[in-house]
Amino acid sequence: MAGEAAPPEEFLADGEIVDAAPASEPPTPVDPSAPPRPTPAASGGGLVPEQLTPTQQRLLDELGTTDRPSFDPDLGPTLRAQLESSLATAADAHAAWLEHRRGGDDHDGDGRPDPLFVSKHRISQIHACEQRYLAEAEDTFAWTVPIARGVVAHKAIELSITWRGTPTPLDLVEGAIARLESDPYARVGDFLATLDEPTRAELLAAANDRVAAFLDGFPPLRRAWRPVTESRVRADLCDDRIVLSGKVDLSLGFARGNQAGRVLLDMKTGGPQPAHIDDLRFYALLETLKNGTPPRMLVNYYLDAGQARSEQVTEDMLWATAQRTVDAVGKIVELTTDQREATFRPSHACKWCAKREDCRVGQQFLAELESA
Ligand code: SF4
After folding, report:
1. Does position 26 have pLDDT exceeding 70, yes or no?
2. Of the four listed, 27, 65, 103, 285, which is most buried by Cβ atoms within 10 Å?
3. Is 121 domain-assigned?
4. CA pair distance 154, 267, nearest whole angstrom
């Protein structure tokens, strides 16, 4: 509101998402003749100067909790040591298989086997249907509009933090595409540069939808929260022979010593699925291995519904995730090195499986599903 002083910067955000609630004051008696008091959102009062929608305010309240747990400083090193020892057998088996396959021919000339890269997607797949995992592992990666949409949208959201004025989502998306096209290190750059006009328009529309949904539902990102989009995390384990890696859609805040402060956030279209929770827990594990202090909160933000599903990070969660990761790597190595046959595990996901035409187990499951 004109004439009102903005709250001091140190009240806004001390480098983190803050508790958005106005400072508590003793209740004042109501004077019926007094003009109505403006609400904090309308006046820019409290700690939040923007006019937030109820959805944005709810999310800010949820993410801005002041509950920041402290963790044992030995947790990160202990997790790493346990992972190294639990994965040693798998790392040896994978390296020996690679060595056997290349028959002593050292392609890289560095005398070292290629590492086994393990992502959240591979972990989810191997714990679901192993046959599907193998089928998809054989596919070579190719950029598509749905895949590029996420990269472009995240870049556009990153630009929104520092873009002057009031850009529209489409301004941000066009700016993001221009930046990515000219960035020699952006892997999506070549794909963007060769798009024909209809495909480019389709990508713009798809990314615009995603960015508009984010800007509508999420509180405006502030620099002081240290927002980072597509934040990369990885852990090189077992003499660099196993690499756990990932890319968080959005990271906010930071740890203070052993006190957790970072929020990891993934943006999702569609509805919630159990795998979404496991994905973020995997990132929390990598973040702990990287920084020593775990993040404090994991958030899946559902763009279509403007809803967040969040959970606090705990030590038990990190240990369970480490075990799930070890189990996944063990299965991946067993299948990769032909130690056993891959199992079938039919589920609703059979509908989208590339093998469904040839898979008797999947077809039977889908037929039963339909008749039920
Ligand atoms: S159709 Fe179903 S059971 Fe068959 S491989 Fe695919 S996911 Fe597995």
Report:
1. no
2. 285
3. yes
4. 9
Strands (E), 169-253: 228-237, 242-252
Containing domain of residue 79, as a range?
73-356
Q: Could you tell me how many residues make up the chain?
A: 372
Per DSSP, what are the bridge partners of residue 297? 263, 312
| Pair 53, 219: CB distance under 8 Å | no
Which ligand 1 atom is nearest residue 353's CA?
Answer: 6
Pairing between β-strand 242-252 and β-strand 228-237 as defined by DSSP bridges: antiparallel
Residue 7 per-residue DSSP state: P
Indicate the range of 20-34, 167-181, 227-241, 323-337 predicted with least confidence: 20-34
Whole-structure pTM value: 0.82
d(CA 275, CA 139): 21
CATH of residue 327: 3.90.320
Angle formed by the axes of helices 315-336 and 120-127, nearest 10°: 70
Check pocket membership of 125 for ligand 1, CB cut-off 6 A: no
52 Cα to the center of ligand 1, angstroms: 45
What is the Cα–Cα distance from 234 to 30, expressed in whole angstroms? Answer: 56
Q: Which atom of ligand 1 is nearest to the CA of 350?
A: 2
In a domain, 43, yes or no: no
Kindly report which listed range (21-35, 77-91, 273-287) carries the lowest average pLDDT score: 21-35
pLDDT in the model for residue 104: 60
Backbone angles phi, psi at 285, to 5 degrees: -65, -45
Segment 208-249, tens digit of pLDDT: 999 999 999 999 888 888 999 888 999 999 999 999 999 998
Residue 58 belongs to some domain of the structure: no
Within-domain flag for 14: no
Give the number of domains in the chain: 1
Q: State residue 264 phi and psi, 5-degree precision.
A: -105, 130
CA 251 to CA 39: how far, in whole Å?
A: 30
CA 331 to chain centre: 24
Q: For 16-25, 307-316, 319-328, 360-369, which range has the lowest pLDDT when averaged over its residues?
A: 16-25
pLDDT of residue 33: 58
Query: What are the C-alpha distances in Å from 214 to residues 66, 125, 246?
Result: 24, 28, 22
Amino acid at 231: S
Q: How far is the CA of 149 from the centre of ligand 1 (A)?
A: 27
- 129 phi and psi, to 5 degrees? -100, 120
